[in-house]
Design brief:
heterodimer; A: 524 residues; alpha/beta; six-stranded mixed sheet; globular; B: 374 residues; mainly alpha; two-stranded antiparallel sheet; two-stranded antiparallel ribbon; 77% helix; 2% strand
């Protein structure tokens, strides 16, 4: 066998104040699917940016070899020439252009100075057929689902004769069916000789598809394992450098009743007045539109974690956003917060009344990325530091920020570090810190662990336990069933905006919950 | 890296020094107390408007209407005072209220009807210009009747030397108290604070600067009223942006409006407030500029919106919002006015002045982009 397709030797990449990669080595064999695993901040993104030419040759130490020959990529184009195509989480698709135009973006087939539209359509149809995408090539990309966009990116990469496909978290936003479709295509491409680097936090997918797994930790390559001889706990152990025995630290029975009884609330939760009570709630996206959330009723008690599951578009995020006062037009029903009617208000009003939301898309909805960690932490709580004459008590604010910065174990040089420079898990901690500093009674968490690493997840779970032990109530929305089942005392599955089924902890099985999410509550 | 940060931080003082040295060599009259005093009046007028614009730019919005607004509000005050015989204070007050109302209205349209600020304020530019010309009947309305009044004195009153020194002493004492209390508060909270020597050194430098400025003005007529107005405005904007929730919210909205909404910030109220303050700054600038020209005529305020935006941008305020400082804006305004003043002295033709202003603006943004990248 000739030289490996791609080799990485002694790669070291330094940013001001941080060493993102130190002496990373790994080898990519022809025709394999090679998974990269590691916690957030382990250096996966940096590594693929080097491979994709985004960080040019000279900005790092060490060597990249393709087919045994050293290469020095100056930009993305060089990498593409060498056959390396990187598909990032943010799609490089133009929403307003058609599927065909996107596939041939920047290299449309031409006759003279004119684009040869007919040729473009013909080639696009042929490519799409390979992938079983029954899309007319003139469909605007904005009408595509996330899964289809993902496949379209791959179609485009394949048309560029890419030999190495680098996929960064391709399934982060996909439904289970879409994931299956994607994995099937990757297997097919592997059969045709394409090599793939696959980055994912979801270890079950990694084990379903990868031939080999390389684990990165703190910027170093720890080990490369043959998937056939590896186990999930072993990989996790390498990723975190310690063994995590209990992935979901919330234990059945120990949660609501006992923690509340320990002192935070003197009443047993089921005797106490519900903290949040929702009756026959129906909400439309806007005035004059039909109902999207339909006839929802539930109670949330002190010290309890109520989980909400459901498929994409089932209305989980919309429900939280509505309760928080940031979405929709209420058609009917009633919401009570600690016994008081909670009309459709505003986020500011909700926060003042003790209801807070940590939203799912932290970069878009959660943080002011250009500002410091401290700025973000106290942003919802500035009233607390406002003194006579509208003056902010800056030292008091800084002390408070420092307390949350330390308590949440945000990994950053100081609270004056810009939020945009943090890894996903640490950004999530800042978002949670901002919510918790308001001193909430009810905390709405929308996908609090999306895209963050195992260690940070565990910290989020411990935080949830701490909140309920203090007598607060938590609503947890999650797309990951094991997480939902592991951390909730009760779960409500939403199906097309209505309750598809409600389950006590003792009744949880993946099958039951999934059936309820798909509208077959009584089938399972 | 450190050299780059140093260069970025020093780029404005260095640019200013270069401009001053260039003009001083070309035209020695540039450094004459008389000219510097006039330069400071120009600076005060543009600086005040730029500080208002700064609040708008921080949120990621823009206001193109302020140039016309300067003319309109100054014109209303002039007509009320001189043609209708109102006391100057009443005329100024009424015009000020009109400004607040107009800008609050524009702010409301922007947030409630979701109309882009670029369009609303462009409409404002045209409408205010038309209103302005109607108000003064496209003629020239003097700001003083037979004798000096409050309106005309805005640009002609200079604080006598003794009072200037007295004011400087008061300001320095106030600074000492504020700084000492801020330092004490940090220490009681267990936070790091400047060592006593450093705090004293910082204070001494600031005190020397205050006395230096007053001494400089006393070389000529004394402290101009316009400069006092700028100083008060700058202190107010500094306090607002650095020491109040409102200021934080301006930065937050400009940085990420959606996240600001979900953080519980009443974005609409903050934006309307910012436009209201812009209206106030426009009114005050209008009074100064009209008074400075001696009368309200159709060209008052022309293109001042662009000078104000340019001053902010030269001073490092990001047009897409979320970034900028009061010091930067002041430096930017001083750079702009120094250029205009120097070119006037050298007898540069108006067409060349436009070209030079445009070039400096483009150059400043280019430098900011180059040095801002990490």
């Amino acid at each position: 066998m000739s030289a490996p397709l791609l080799e990485v030797h002694g790669l070291t990449k330094r940013f001001p104040g941080v060493t993102a990669l130190s002496d990373v080595n790994f080898t990519l064999a022809r025709g394999e699917i090679h998974a990269l695993c590691g916690e957030n901040g382990a250096g996966k993104s940096t590594l693929i940016k080097l491979l994709g030419g985004i960080y040019p040759h000279g900005s790092y130490e060490g060597e990249l070899r393709v087919d045994g020959r050293p290469v020095s990529f100056q930009g993305i184009r060089d990498a593409e020439h060498a056959g390396v195509a990187v598909i990032t989480q943010e799609f490089a698709l133009v929403d307003e252009l058609s599927v065909a135009e996107n596939i041939f973006l920047g290299r449309a087939p031409c006759r003279g100075f004119c684009v040869d539209w007919l040729e473009m359509q013909k080639r696009a149809v042929a490519l799409l057929k390979d992938f079983g995408l029954a899309l007319p090539p003139e469909t605007p990309v904005r009408e595509l689902g996330i899964g289809q966009k993902q496949l379209l990116e791959i179609v485009r990469a394949m048309d560029k004769r890419s030999r190495v496909l680098v996929l960064d978290e391709p399934t982060a936003a996909l439904t289970e069916q879409e994931v299956e479709v994607l994995l099937t295509h990757l297997r097919r491409l592997r059969g045709q000789g394409t090599t793939c680097i696959y980055i994912s936090h979801k270890l079950d997918e990694v084990f379903a598809i990868a031939d080999r797994i390389t684990v990165l930790r703190d910027g170093a390559s720890i080990t490369t394992l043959e998937t056939a001889h590896a186990t999930v706990p072993a990989v996790i152990k390498h990723m975190v450098g310690r063994e995590i025995t209990d992935l979901f630290p919330r234990k059945a029975g120990s949660s609501a009743a006992s923690s509340a009884a320990e002192g935070a609330t003197s009443l047993r939760p089921d005797e106490a007045q519900p903290m949040l009570s929702v009756r026959h709630l129906s909400v439309a996206p806007a005035r004059g539109k039909p109902a999207f959330l339909r006839d929802l009723s539930f109670d949330l008690r002190a010290g309890e974690v109520l989980g909400f599951g459901g498929l994409m578009g089932a209305g989980r995020t919309e429900l939280l956003m509505h309760l928080f006062g940031a979405w929709g037009h209420r058609l009917g029903g009633e919401v009570r917060l600690c016994g008081q009617p909670h009309a459709h208000s505003s986020p500011g009003e909700s926060i003042r009344r003790g209801l807070v939301l940590a939203s799912e898309d932290r970069r878009r909805y959660g943080l002011i990325l250009a500002q410091e960690i401290g700025f973000n932490l106290s942003l919802s709580s500035l009233r607390e530091f406002t003194r006579a004459g509208g003056r902010l008590d800056l030292p008091a604010e800084q002390v408070r920020n420092q307390h949350f910065f330390g308590a949440l174990r945000v990994k950053a040089p100081s609270q004056h570090t810009r939020a945009g420079t943090l890894s996903g898990g640490n950004q999530q901690k800042v978002v949670l810190g901002k919510a918790l500093m308001t001193g909430p009674r009810v905390v709405l968490l929308d996908e609090p662990t999306r895209g963050i690493d195992v260690g940070a997840k565990l910290e989020v779970y411990e935080l949830i336990n701490r909140l309920t032990a203090e007598g607060r109530a938590v609503v947890l929305v999650s797309s990951e069933l094991p997480e939902l089942m592991g951390m909730s005392d009760r779960v409500i599955m939403l199906h097309e905006g209505a309750v598809g089924g409600e389950f006590a902890r003792t009744e949880f099985t993946q099958e039951k919950l999934l059936a309820a999410a798909m509208g077959h509550a009584h089938a399972a | 890296m450190n050299a780059r940060i140093l260069l970025k931080n020093l780029s404005m003082p260095l640019a200013l020094a270069a401009i001053w040295i260039f003009f001083a060599l070309k035209e020695p009259a540039f450094l004459a107390p008389r000219n510097l005093s006039q330069l400071m009046v120009d600076f005060s007028i543009i600086g005040t408007l730029a500080l208002g614009m700064f609040l708008i730019l921080l949120t990621g919005q823009i206001d193109l209407s302020v140039g016309s607004g300067v003319g309109l509000i100054g014109g209303i005050a002039a007509v009320l005072t001189v043609q209708h015989g109102w006391p100057a204070a009443a005329g100024l007050g009424a015009a000020f209220l009109v400004a607040l109302l107009l800008w609050a209205l524009m702010g409301t349209l922007i947030v409630k009807e979701r109309m882009p600020s670029f369009i609303i304020t462009l409409a404002g530019l045209l409408i205010f210009k038309g209103l302005f010309w109607r108000v003064i009947h496209s003629s020239t309305v003097s700001v003083k009747g037979v004798e000096e009044n409050l309106y005309s004195m805005i640009s002609t009153y200079y604080l006598p030397a003794g009072m200037g020194v007295g004011l400087a002493v008061a300001v320095v004492v106030l600074m000492a108290v504020v700084q000492w209390r801020a330092r004490a508060a940090r220490i009681t909270h267990g936070l790091s604070a400047l060592s006593a020597q450093r705090a004293a050194l910082k204070f001494a430098l600031m005190g020397a600067a205050v006395f230096g400025v007053v001494a400089g003005f006393n070389q000529s007529h004394g402290l101009p009223m316009t400069f006092l107005i700028l100083a008060v405005t700058a202190a107010a904007v500094y306090f607002l942006t650095q020491h109040t929730p409102f200021g934080r919210y301006l930065y937050a909205i400009g940085g990420n409006e959606e996240a600001a909404v979900l953080s519980g910030i009443n974005v609409n109220r903050v934006l309307i407030g910012a436009y209201g303050l812009m209206g106030a700054a426009t009114a005050v600038t209008g009074f100064m500029q009209t008074s400075y020209q001696g009368s309200s005529s159709t060209t008052v305020g022309d293109l001042m919106e662009l000078d104000a935006i340019a001053a902010c941008v030269i001073g490092g305020t990001a047009l897409k919002g979320g970034r900028g400082t009061v010091w930067g804006v002041l430096f930017g305004a001083l750079i702009m006015t120094s250029l205009l003043n120097g070119m006037n002295l050298m007898g540069v033709t108006p067409e060349m002045k436009y070209i030079a202003r445009g070039t400096v603006l483009a150059l400043a943004v280019w430098l900011d982009v180059r040095l801002g990248r990490t």
